[in-house]
Each structure stands twice: as C-alpha cells, then as structure tokens.
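Sample entry was shown:

___
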Amino acid sequence: MSRFQVVADNSATFEVKRLCELVEIERSSYYAWLKAAPAREERARADAELAERIRAVHAEDNTCGAPRITAELNDKCARPPIRSGGLWCCQPPATCPSRCR
C-alpha cells in the first residue's frame, strides 16, 4: 500500500494536511496522485488486455520471446506485460537480453 493510498483511505476521518505530514508527502503530490487515478486505471486495463493477447500468442507457440510476440501483435509495448504476466522467453542466456529476465 502506498503512502498516498493511506492518506486517501483516512481522508474522511482526518485532515489531509495532517495525514500528509504524518506520512511525509507533499499535499500537492497527493492531489496530483488523486487526479491521475483514472489514467492509472485505464493503463492497468490496457496492460491487462495486452497481457491477455500476449498469453494467447504465447499459448500457440511457447518458444516465442518478446521480439516475436511484438511482431505478431504489431505492438511496440509487449515486453513489460510479458515480464509482469509471468511469461519468459525461452532463448539461451547468451542470446537473451538481461532486461528480459
């Protein structure tokens, strides 16, 4: 749980100013975080949708790494959902970039 979420959860009971002092964040940062919530939710939804598409491609041929899956999906952002979705490329360590692991 982030410090911003602690402030949001307790803002109905306590003043935001005091909560921000307690968790050592700036009020402006808290309000910026609060304002950005819809964009974070939309990104999470888009990432989940892309991860599902990646799983479908990976299920067809589980030897596909990020470059092949990206080419298959014609999408330039396949690598992050591959890592977060628990899918790994099957290339030998010598040829697989370290950021893929």
